[in-house]
Design goal:
Blueprint: H1 2-17, H2 47-56, E1 60-65, H3 69-80, E2 85-89, E3 104-105, H4 109-117, H5 121-140, E4 145-154, H6 159-174, E5 183-186, H7 187-193, E6 204-213, H8 215-228, E7 232-235, E8 237-246, E9 252-261, E10 267-277, H9 283-290, E11 301-308, E12 318-321, E13 330-335, E14 338-342, E15 346-347, H10 358-369, E16 385-391, E17 410-413, E18 418-422, H11 429-444, H12 469-477, H13 481-491, H14 495-500, H15 524-532, H16 538-545, H17 548-551, H18 553-571, H19 575-592, H20 595-604, H21 611-624, E19 631-632, H22 634-643, H23 651-661, E20 669-670, H24 671-682, H25 690-710, H26 713-716
Parallel strand pairs: 1-2, 1-10, 2-7, 4-12, 10-18
Antiparallel strand pairs: 3-6, 4-6, 5-6, 8-9, 9-10, 11-14, 11-15, 11-16, 12-13, 13-14, 17-18, 19-20
Helix pairs in contact: 1-12, 3-8, 3-11, 4-5, 12-13, 15-18, 18-19, 21-24, 21-25, 22-25
Bound molecules: flavin-adenine dinucleotide (FAD).
Length: 720
């Protein structure tokens, strides 16, 4: 084992030395020449070391509030200019909108259409900038972002040249930053590539390319890169107030912030020459700390996504209708082996804990149905998780008419020098950050040592990454191939450091890497490594270091106790702390990741069965519950499966089957849960379950057994 690790360490060192331009193949010769990045300066400081810095530093040049994409981008930008930088995030990095996006890195096809139709230069520039940033992001973290082909279905002949022209313009505006060229597909070819698509009214399709990312891990990669380059970067510390004083001209200006460590309750002051408000939808709460009377600029709107099983879309092709009949955008995109579908757009309140509602989920499901062929039955029970994100739409306080919403991001400097950066989109986080830091330098007369270095800069994990890096993880460490691919994609060249922390499986193969849930490639070592990446709560871990909560709320719930045990070892949690973490994470899954609405949707279904059906199902239930306990246990299921020749059914599989019906998740299925399940199957709300099939078969077997007893061989003549 030691030899294996040595080999891997050596290999990783070689890999880390190489400057990567892998992503940009001959098809996309972008940015390869523009790799301008500072060398990694220090090992990643721990959160405790960073907290110490935050308490002891006499004065920072820049203090950034908010650790979403925008704030993390500002921190990276400021520290590459040699400014003494601090970033504080009240919850976790990406806990706000930045982990709840559609995960597209895009220039905005729709905006380009408007720019052309309305000869709108400002709109055109926005698209152009976003397309530059798209290429920049794909380059700076190729492990976390990749090009994704997206199909636009076309339903009338005249739309084909119209869409084709629009998409070709998109390629053209991207120029040398094009990801890959778009192309037209006949109806037959479109259905071959996207077999789930409804074919009856389809006339053809256009395929174009945008980028797709793991948004929370990308956000983290930006923050970690800033941390390595010298910035003080701390999560779970929030700003509770702003400090004011006088500058050298006697003008009242901001001089720092009063902050609170949300993990301990400790409060103190942090001094800074410039303060950047990068709090997304919370922008007005900070603006009001500066000036109570300031008018609000944020007009929050919630967008819900649902996650469906992977078979709703092909592995490597998304689908997007940019203009449904009522003017909305509908999409379903493959992501991390599942399918994301969305989205809604409804005015909402600003909250740290947005929740998806049943109406929003049903609305998306209904829309998805319109695009899929009848073979793919779209069922409520297929929703694996659902989450809501708040769009930080803002009006521009620099303009006299503050009623209308800004199309792009805004940068505003208040009379006391609070620099607010808000709006925009994930794709343009770097450019937005550069603009905000420029404004801070100018307003607060900072003296940077350098210009911004972030355009083309490689982020944490990108330096030694290559598309085939995962093979070394398999060969050198003895990791399962799927796990190695996942580690390489999530951590880039840091995957070697993660693999080194993996425990032995005790099996011949894989040698290391115990999975924390049988259906997902996440392993134990990621929990330990996640604590070094500043995860401090179980929610940080299941939602943002791993993406399990976003992918499958039920699986996240099942993996939770094991995850908490490992975190407790790493972070020295007491039994009480473990209980608290479990409770908070369970509530998060129930409320913010759609588990509660999933369960409620099944509970809401009335038991819609005839008297005869109820009798039948009661009989089946009693056949399985041989000991008349009043509930069915995992052992009953095991016995049932054995009856049908499934000799050794693995524990996970049994667990899976039990999960299908056990709505209160106590490991026991009672009669009312079983009837509810059968009713939901009958009404099409949930898929036909393996348990239901097993009950059916067990009943048939039972009938046969009775018949055998009744008709003896002597009487029947031995079958003759
Ligand atoms: C449904 C939806 C889909 C989207 N899809 C895409 C897409 O596909 N592509 C794309 O480019 N863009 C997309 N966007 C837009 C993109 O997600 C956002 O523009 C971006 O994430 C905003 O980042 P942010 O850092 O400004 O805000 P946030 O990510 O919300 O970060 C703000 C942070 O500030 C912190 N904070 C608040 N108050 C305090 C305080 N007092 N002290 C300390 N910290 C504080 C919060 O905890 C939060 O983490 C989408 C948005 C939504 C809602």
């Amino acid at each position: 084992m030691a030899t294996l690790r040595l080999l891997a360490a050596g290999a990783s060192a070689v890999g880390a030395g190489a400057v990567t331009t892998y992503f940009f193949t001959s098809d996309s010769p972008v940015l390869a020449e523009k790799v301008a990045h500072k060398p990694v300066k220090r090992p990643l400081p721990s959160r405790e070391e960073q907290l110490k810095n935050l308490k002891e530093q006499l004065e920072y040049d820049v203090l950034i509030i908010g650790g979403g994409a925008t704030g993390a981008g500002c921190a990276l930008d400021a520290c590459t200019r040699g400014l003494k930088t601090a970033l504080i995030e009240g919850d976790d990095f990406a806990s706000g909108t930045s982990s709840r996006s559609t995960k597209l890195i895009h220039g905005g096809v729709r905006y380009l259409q408007k720019a052309i139709m309305q000869v709108d230069v400002e709109q055109y520039k926005m698209v152009k900038e976003a397309l530059h940033e798209r290429a920049q992001m794909l380059h700076s973290a190729p492990h976390l972002a990749h090009p994704l082909p997206i199909m636009l279905p076309v339903y009338t002949w005249w739309q084909i040249p119209y869409y084709w022209f629009g998409i070709k313009m998109y390629d053209l505006v991207a120029g040398s930053k094009t990801v890959k060229s778009s192309y037209y597909l006949s109806k037959a070819n479109a259905l071959e590539l996207f077999p789930m698509l409804k074919g009856d009214k389809l006339t053809g399709a256009i395929v174009y390319y945008d980028g797709q990312q793991d948004d929370a891990r990308m956000n983290l990669a930006v923050a970690l890169t800033a941390s390595r380059l010298g910035a003080t970067v701390v999560n779970h510390v929030s700003v509770v107030n702003l400090l004011k004083g006088r500058d050298r001209d006697g003008k009242t200006v901001l001089t720092g912030a009063h902050v609170r460590d949300e993990m301990t309750g400790e409060e103190w002051d942090v001094k800074a020459k410039a303060i950047i408000n990068a709090t997304g939808p919370f922008t007005d709460s900070i603006r009001k700390m500066d000036d109570q009377a300031v008018p609000e600029i944020c007009c929050p709107s919630s967008g819900v996504h649902i996650v469906l099983p992977g078979y709703y879309s092909p592995d490597q092709m998304g689908l997007l209708d940019p203009a449904t009949s009522d003017g909305r955008v509908i999409f379903f995109l493959p992501w991390q082996k599942q399918t994301i579908a969305g989205t809604t757009d409804l005015p909402c309140q600003v909250t740290h804990n947005p929740r998806p509602t049943e109406d929003e989920i049903m609305f998306i499901l209904q829309e998805v149905k319109n695009y899929l062929n009848p073979d793919v039955e779209v069922r409520r029970g297929d929703v694996l998780s659902a989450w809501s994100g708040i769009r930080p739409l803002v009006s521009d306080p620099n303009k006299p008419n503050t009623q209308s919403l800004a199309r792009n991001h805004i940068v505003h400097v208040s009379p006391t020098n609070l620099v607010t950066i808000a709006g925009g989109k994930w794709t343009t986080y770097r450019a937005m950050a550069e603009e905000a830091v420029d404004a801070a330098i100018q307003a607060c007369r900072l003296e940077p040592l350098d210009v911004s270095q972030t355009d083309g800069m490689l982020l944490e994990g990108a330096h030694g990454w290559s598309p085939t890096m995962y093979i070394r993880l398999v060969q050198d460490f003895g990791l399962e191939c799927e796990v190695a691919q996942h580690l390489a994609k999530s951590y880039g060249d840091r995957a070697f450091a993660v693999a080194k922390m993996a425990s032995l499986t005790g099996k011949r193969w894989p040698i290391i890497g115990k999975k924390i849930h049988p259906e997902f490639p996440y392993i134990d070592a990621e929990i330990r490594y996640g604590c070094r990446e500043y995860a401090r709560t179980a929610i940080d871990m299941i939602a943002r270091r791993l993406r399990l909560a976003f992918l499958n709320v039920q699986a996240a719930n099942e993996a939770l106790p094991g995850i908490i045990d490992i975190m407790a070892e790493e972070l020295k949690w007491s039994p009480e702390e473990k209980k608290k973490q479990h409770k908070e994470a369970s509530e998060f899954l129930a409320n913010e990741m759609g588990q509660m609405v999933n369960r409620a949707s099944r509970d809401k279904i009335p038991i819609n069965l005839t008297k005869d059906e109820i009798q039948l199902y009661i009989k089946r239930f009693q056949i399985i519950d041989k000991d008349r306990k009043g509930y069915v246990s995992i052992n009953d299921i095991r016995r049932g499966l054995k009856l049908f020749g499934d000799k050794d059914v693995p524990g996970e599989e049994l667990h899976e089957i039990l999960k299908e019906i056990d709505t209160n998740m106590n490991g026991q299925v009672e009669l009312d849960e079983y009837l509810q399940m059968m009713s939901a199957i009958k009404s099409g709300h949930v898929a036909y379950s393996r348990f239901a099939r097993m009950a059916e078969m067990e009943e048939a077997q039972h009938e046969k057994d009775i018949l055998k007893k009744q008709i003896s061989v002597e009487r029947s003549g031995g079958g003759l």
